[in-house]
Amino acid sequence: MKSLIAALLLAMLALPAAAQVRIEISGGEAAALPIAVVPFQMQDAAEGDGPDVDLAGIIRDNLFRSGLFAPLDPDNHLSQPSRLEQVRFQNWRALGADTVLIGRITPLDGDAYRVRYELLDVYAGERIAGQRFRVTSAGLRNLAHTISDQVFETLIGRPGGFNTRIAYVEETGTGDERSHRLMVAEADGHRPQTILTSSEPILSPDWSPDGERIAYVSLESGRQSQIYVQNVATGERTALPSFDGINSAPAWSPDGERLAVTLSRDGNPDVFILDPDGDADPRPITRHFGIDTEPAWSPDGETLYFTSNRGGSPQIYRQPVSGGDAERVTFDGNYNASPSVSPNGRFLTFAHQRDEGFQIAVLDLEDDIMRVLTDGPLDESPSFSASSSMIAYTRDTGDATELATVSVFGRVQGGLTEFDNTVREPDWGPLPSAD
C-alpha cells in the first residue's frame, strides 16, 4: 500500500523548494574502529566435535555491517590466541587493531557447549569485557548476536541491536499461483520463519515496541484493505475496524498504546490515530486536500512524520500529535517518501529521488544535512535498526528484489543472506525485552 500511494504522490507536479545541504556518499566514514575477531578455539574436543556455527564469523559480519567497525581480515592474523596469556599485544598493534576479541568453546555433556569470550584493549594491554555462557547448539547463533551486542555497547556506548528481528513480505509464484507470506528473520536475514501466508497481498508490516505483535495490511477480504494486529508467537490476530476507502500504513506509537494509520473514509487519505484494540473512534491528525500517508512516530511519541503531496510533490512533513500545523522537512529532490525515524531521534531516513532512480537517504535532524546512502536505481522501504546505526531496505537486483542494509553514514552497504524469492517492505524490530 505504501508503494501504491507513493506512486499516486509521484504523479503530482513538483513546486520550488527551499535549499537543503545534500551530500553524496562516495568514500564512507573513516572513523570505523579496527578490531580483530579471532576464530574461537575448540577446547577438550575430539576432531569433528565442534559446532557448525562460526561464532567469530557471525560477530565479525555483524560489527562490519554496523559501519562503526573495521574487522581485520582473519587471514592476516599472526596468531589465533584463545586466552589472555597467549596474546602478544605488540603483534596486534603492528596490524593496526585497537581491540581484539578472543574466545573458546568447550563441549559439555549432551547437546551443550560452554563458550567464553574476552575483549582486549590492545594499547592498554588489558581485558575490558568478557563473559562465560552455557548454550545448546541451537542457541549458538543467538549467542553470537549477544556477544556482538556486548562488544558494540562496550566500545560504542549504546545497544547494538544484533539480537533483533526483521519482518518483511515475501512473494512467490505468478498469476493465480502467487503467494504472499509475512516473514520474520534474524537481523542478518538468517533463519526466516513464516507467520502468515495469503493468496492476497500483505502490506506495511510494523513491529509493536515490545516486539510481540506486528500490525499489517491485508487485502484478503477482496479489494477492501484491512489492518490486522498479529501476535508473532501465537499467530493469534485481530482485525481492526475497517472503514470505506483506504485502510493502510499502520505505525505503532512508542508506548504501544496507539496506531497511526492512513484512512480515506472521508474521501481523502489523511493520517488518523487508532486504538489498537479498536475500542475508540479514529482521531484525525491531518486534514488536507492532499494525500497524507506513511506516518512514522518520533521516539518521544509527540510528533508524527508523514508523506504528503500537499506542496505539489511527495515530501516528508511533521506535525505535533497534540495538534498544530504541519511543517515540511525535506526539500532536496522531487520525491522523498516512506519516512523512518531513528530510535535515538537524530536521523530520518526515506526513499529519495532527485533525477533518475530511487535511493535511500538520511537527514540529520540536528544539522539539517542530508546524505544519499545508496546507488539505486530502485531502493525503497527504509527502516532503522534499534541501534540507530543501520538501515534495512529493499533493492532491485534486476532479477528480484532483495533485502539489504546500509550503515547510517553510508560506509557499508550490502545484501543480507540469500533470498530465493522477491522480498519487500522490511521493518526492523525493537531490542529484546529486558524481562
Rg over alpha carbons: 23 Å
Count of DSSP-assigned helices? 4
- Tell me the distance between the termini: 35 Å
How many DSSP E strands?
31
Shape: globular
Unreliable spans are 1-18, 23-29
Mean of residue pLDDT values: 89
List keywords for this structure.
435 residues; mainly beta; 31 strands; 41% strand
Task: Walk me through this protein's architecture.
By secondary structure, this protein is mainly beta. Helix content is 10%, strand content 41%. It has helices spanning 2-10, 55-65, 89-95, 140-156, and strands spanning 21-24, 33-37, 41-42, 69-71, 99-108, 112-121, 126-136, 165-172, 179-186, 193-198, 202-207, 213-218, 226-231, 237-239, 247-252, 259-263, 270-274, 283-284, 292-297, 303-308, 315-320, 327-328, 335-341, 347-353, 359-364, 369-372, 379-384, 390-396, 401-407, 413-415, 422-428. Strands 2, 3, 4, 5, 6 and 7 form a six-stranded mixed β-sheet that branches. Strands 1-26-25-24-23 form a five-stranded mixed β-sheet. A hairpin with a 5-residue loop joins strand 13 (226-231) and strand 14. It starts with a helix and ends in a 7-residue tail after the last strand. Mean pLDDT is 89; it is low at 1-18 and 23-29.
Short description:
With 435 residues, this protein is mainly beta.
